[in-house]
Amino acid sequence: MRPALSREATVNAVLALLLLAIPLAASAAGQTFYVTLATRIALLALAAVGLNIALGLGGLVSFGHAAFFGLGGYAAGIMATHAFNSEPLLFGLEASTSMPVIWLVAALACGVAALPIGAVSLRTTGVYFIMITLAFAQMIYYFAISWPAYGGEDGLPIYVRNSFPGINTATPLSYFLLCYGMLILGLVLFRFLRDSRFGAALQAARQNATRLSAVGIAPFQIRLVAFVISAMITGVAGALLADLNRFVSPSMLSWHMSGELIVLIILGGKGRLFGPVAGAMLYVLFEYALGSYTERWQLFLGLILLGVVLFARGGLLGLIAGRERHG
Amino acid sequence: MSTALLIEQLLNGLQLGVMLFLMAAGLTLIFGVMGLINLAHGSLYMVGAFACATVAAATGSFWIGLAASLAAAALAGAIVEILVIRRLYERDHLDQVLATFALILIFSEGTRWLFGSFPLYLDIPPLLQGAVPLPGGGQYQLYRLAIIGVGVVVAVGLYLMIARTRLGMRIRAGESDREMIAALGIDISTLYTVVFALGAGMAGLAGALVGALQSVQVGMGEPVLILAFVVIVIGGIGSIKGALFGAILVGVVDTMGRFLLPQALLFMLPPSQAALVGGALASMLIYIVMALILAFRPRGLFAAHS
Amino acid sequence: MADPVLEIRELRKSFGALKATDGVNLDLVPGEIHALIGPNGAGKSTLIHLISGSLAPDHGTIRFLGKDMNGLNMAARARLGLARSFQTSSLAQEFSALRNVMLAIQARQGSSLRFFRPVMRDRSLIEPSMEMLEKVDLADRAHVPAAELSHGERRQLEIAIALALGPKAFLLDEPMAGMGPEGTRSLTEFLDGLRKEAPILLVEHDMDAVFALADRISVLVYGRVIASGKVDEIRNHPEVRRAYLGESQ
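YS: structure for the whole thing
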């Protein structure tokens, strides 16, 4: 029991250091492309850390988390656009280009969206929940496409990357470090949640909802709170990714994106602290390595994914660190 | 707004509904009998469309193409069932979602590899070109009317098959009690392959029929797949009757919403705003309807497994 | 007699044409073990579901501590002090025995919307939970995942969880099911002492245990209580002998 735990901790530390060391080295060697690649990994991982709360801890297979990823992205895009054009937002509020404000707005917007979506979806379970979360995300996707004010189908450019006090976000390495810091913060938050009373109730709801009810804790409330927190974290990751790409489009809201986020978690290891990090590293490396050999890399990604689902159910961390144990 | 225009839009809604039924019937049948959620159903729709377009171009006959679409999609379905899907029946829904998501990637990129990235085109067969007059003036495309006819025939056929035939009896047994079919000495894995191929064939047929109205391209199945999910969630997963009802509801509500909402908003908003808001609202309408239905009936209108 | 803790009046529940619960009246008073017996299919499980809140009745009332529980879900009823054990063990399988009990202690202490303090360093959860495990002789298995416990140990754990809730009444659904003679004997002894903590509504097939433990017995047949009374009254009740005991002898 103890060795499996400490082995996982070692693997986690190695992954965290790798993700930090590679862009540092690449930046020193003047290879900014790899810094951007690492930033993408960190942000996809952060989005998946959010989803991992609902999916990994709570067993809630949300097939609609792209909605929150994209909403966060649009929060960054819309704020930047309004600030750039010096147009006030709703109710005459000034738009801000300060990232902490944007993240707050992104998180709040996602929380406000996740509350009703979760409240309806969580009345159902299993396959219904999967399809309903998917459908709600599609609703937001189609809305983004048909609403021309913020670019509609073409998406919305961010002309100048938003700012963070004391950091020059325009240089690749400092932006990476900012994103890396946010990822670590997300992981710390995930860990606290997982080990807390809330986390205990959430994981019990996944393992046996009747048992949880029978001790007097209503699973619905616990799951709804988890769903909202999960959406907020994914939303902040979306805002950061929009700033990385200096662009946000409906594709961030698409169901392929929802699928990708689930895939990241499964590749890495569902419910594990560093599962999303391992998964995002694998995914982006596949994309990059396969993509340089063939433009049909998604075909091979599909085959690999199929292999993982059919034959390696614990994901990468399951292979390296063995089964997870709870006190 | 004339009566003819209204009838035309209603028929368009019905045609969309019928096509959604062809997709949703297979999805819901596969879920009802095997407990499987199949995201790759849209890929089978695409396979049907590509098969029809290719064979029709080669032989010059839409009808041979249509037969080919059924055969190709059913065959692809059977192969996928034997190679992949049957390993998923005992797995949880998350594994099913992921594996069938992987199948979508494989199907889409595979098709792009074989056919390139450019869309194919499929002509409406000469027999069904032209239009029929509508009461109150105006005309309606004969081909769309034919699609509605095909849908009615498939719905009746499916009903008769499930109610009257030996295969239908086995499917019903499979839905209610898996142990019972084993006890009846039915080869369950063959039954599952047949049911999956049947669902795939219907999806392929839908793809081919719609292929003549739109272009045939990779990814064409995905929007339809998601609408079909909305349909079976509304109807109750596992219920064919629910799929029929949900499909018509979604088809008509979606089409009429896009037509009527911008006009209705003219009473409240200036014209440019009305078109904008109406259009955006219409694109969300069926999801709002779905949410409302689920708020009262979380397991859909015709829940099969309560 | 003292005021009943649990008071069931004219309870009815049908599934289609089947009347699973057909006008049941039942009381549970402080300090007693009230056994509910009946042949298979008599509607015992349905009744347990109705009382615990996993099914809603068509008609009738269930009052608990004088409060009408109609419309309360299972969690709310548990919070009022109704502790339930399951016919087939229902545990958080990946969690250790200790963490399963801690969940109950956590629920009893109030809101679970606490996000920061790790439960495994929270002595206010761990200590009372270990105490409960000691009471059911499971302390040495505290860190074993529920899935790896033996059948008998899982039944003991169910009882420990019910105890941890500090309930006002126990609803025990066949706690002896699948236990060997030794386990049944020690559990009987344990339940005998438990009635001092809170009264028990006991559904049980093991007649030796029922006759040893029960203060009162109600007999359920086809959804109706056909007889209710002291152990000896039931033992000699002609209708009961014909409808129920007759079958098994």
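YS: worth flagging: Strands of chain A lie at 156-157, 247-248.
IM: good catch. Also Chain A has a mean pLDDT of 91.
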